Description:
Elements: E1 8-17, E2 22-28, E3 37-38, E4 41-43, H1 50-62, E5 66-78, E6 83-93, E7 107-114, H2 126-137, E8 160-163
Parallel strand pairs: 1-6
Antiparallel strand pairs: 1-2, 1-4, 2-3, 2-7, 5-6, 5-8
Amino acid sequence: MSNHLIAKIGVGALIIDKENNSVLLSKKNYGPIKDKWTFPEGYVDQGESPSEAIKREVKEELNGEIEVNGLVSVRYRKSEEETTIYFVFNCLLLNKEELRINDKKEINDFRFFDIEQIKDNSEIYSLVKIILDKYKNNPDFNFKKTDFTPSEIEIDKNNYLLYL
Length: 164
């Protein structure tokens, strides 16, 4: 038996509409952030890379075609149930007019939010807010460890790492 970490790998898409200064978010139907607006996201399947997974997830959930342009953040979270590593990619949406919900099991809504109005919206997951704040102030994204933990989830600071 190996003592190496076994973790689920999650992926999220930061999709900015630069014309309208807005970000695409979807509303979750399950999990610890149920009914919160968050990035289009999902889990990496066996044999799939994180960038392949986010392309598949955006297609499955929203019929979206994206180009993956870089890594925005990496988050590590350990709970009693599971350990997850979450990659958020900066993505370019190629077919905005064709977006629609494909899978009502996972998400129940999606929309573009004005980036300037996100900070005060309590329905938006705090992780999204901190990543967008970093994006607004530094589009180059130099990674640094933060002391952030989301208020929506009870978690020990030692079991949650976010690099931005």
